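Recall the central idea of this unit: under ordinary conditions, the amino acid sequence of a chain determines the structure it adopts. In this exercise we apply that idea directly, starting from the sequence alone.
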Amino acid sequence: MRPDAHRRRRAPDPPPFPTVFALLLVLAIVAGVAVGGGFSGRDGATTAARSASEPADDEAADDEAVSDPAFDASGREGAKRLLDADPRSAWALPDALEPAMDRLWDDDRGAYVSPGGRISTRLNAEMLRIHAGAALADHRGASRKDDRVAGLVRFLTGPAFLRDRRGVRFGGSRHNAVHVPGWRQSSASEVNQHPSIDAVAARSLRSAWLARDRVGLPDAERRAIRSTVSAVARSRAFRAPARLLNQINWNADLYAADATVTGDPTLLRRDYREQLAWFAAHAHAPERPGRTPNLSAGDGFFYRPGVVPSAPVDHADTVEYANVVLGALRYAGQADRAGMRPLPERQLRTLRGWASHVVTADWTPSGYLNWETGKGRTRIHLRQYWALALDGVVGALRGGESVTMRPASQGSLLLARGTRLFRQWALEEDTILLDAASFGFRTTFESVRRNRVTATVRFAATLADWAAGCACDGRLPDPEADRAPLRTAFDPELGRLAVNTARYATAVGPPTSVPTGGGLEPAWILDGRARPLLSLGGGGRGSLGLTLTRRGRKQLDTQPGEPGGEDPELRLRPAGEDRYTGVMTSTIGDVRVTHRFTPEGIETRYVVDPKGRDVGVTLRIPSGSGGAVQCLPPEIWSGRGCARGYLVRSGLAGMRVALRGLPPRVTSELERPAYRTMNPRPGLQATIRFVVDRRTVILRDIAPIAP
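Accordingly, the structure predicted from this sequence is:
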């Protein structure tokens, strides 16, 4: 079977109306589970029906958002402590965070309590990971809180845990994966659940178990850990083949925790292996013909396998979840030591190839994701998912070396780069309680817009976990080490090209890759410190591109954005080493676009073939982050363009742009594009116009300025 054989085909003739109605009824019933991310297992774990008044996708009460002036002030103080600390210390952030979290600690309840009175299971589990990690490493800093470990264990094995359904009122969200036994999202009177909550609770209790002697954990709490972890891990909701979509990582967390706290490796030997084998077997071959598998032909991650290929969620590589799910490999070494039978070599090759793609394509040398996602504007640039993705890939490289065949040091390097980036954000925002999203992006995940806690706590927990097991006194490697000059990854099925260099990162994707893609041009460019040089994706005004017009009417745009999504051929194709090309046609002319990517920048060649006379050509040179475009000094801006080239300034980032091959008569102007979601802080755009009546070759060179 060809790797792309499951993709879109011409639809057959429609069936008669009664058949259509019956099909729609069945699909509606299935969608109640599949669209909501239903969590299905042999115990009939269900997804509650969504009420008519429920908010849009993924919205629910956020029990981790904290809004309190004193807490905010402690975040600013935390930034000072972080920036004064050793930049190579993994304990700098956990220690800088603790004074802020101290304001939420409630001795009587043995938990961190938000000002509104709710207790978040996830938040407290992550804090338990930090405290247990500090104890395991024998760290002597503010994050070492041995006296709080028992209280947090009591909370997670007591009020946060559901043993049965008696007296419980479950929330009506379609995202509520009801299962008992299991952990609840928070102390709210209406119970919501998700396998990710069970996973983080089990991971934290596993950490507490490993630190039990160091912190003097009482016998009652030790028994409670064994009882709750084992009950959930061995429940029919988590035993193979049950899983949420293809997110086998949540199950893996439970299996490893169970093996650690009970000493019985059965789940690691059997169920863990079965989950890995299932993922690999259906990486490129769907379970059902004509549906999507787990991965694309280029190892991009399909968020929702098993649906028809036309589903928009699977038109993009969902890189944040790719890294999260890759985290399942963190337990491969533990499973090997427990006697797990090796996977077949072909499945190991599949997992190894996927891991290689994730490491080289999904991460920029700045420590930020080369981000595209099928979850669109509800996930992209959310820092809590950046932190979750980093936790996954670091864990996979650290514990899964027998599968990935990559040294654990690569995970340590990614973590060091992420730490440097976090410090940069703390400096820019003057707080360690960061905005929920990067770059001023306005996420459509409404309930997390004001959450400035989760990303920081989650990242601090990852650092503590790493430091507890690195045998290096918590000292991170040099983030500048092993910076590959140029890495490109092209997915022939999704049509996405990811480019990562030490100086810049970018991606090109078709308009179907909403919201980041848009055509044949680099949709966004980040400099070597993850600062945007353009908009954040899409097309049209505010993006790089070339248009053809006649009598003022636009007929062609090399970067149209979402309006161009109906053209399946609007995508690049390989044209040699680090070269990619694409063609657009129209009634007034054709344009071939060829990019060559180098460690220093992007060389673009446009070949414009007009059909007739008086074809107008417009070139866009935009800026981002409220930036500006000017002529390279000493030339002064005029209406005739810049002979020496253009200097684009976007906040603290910059790039030089040179144009060659323009005809003698050129006009130019500066304008500011309108706000759009993927251009939240529009900067000035240089718009260059001229007319052609014969084949014209135009060269554009983009050179991001080294940070």
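The first helix runs from residue 17 to 34.
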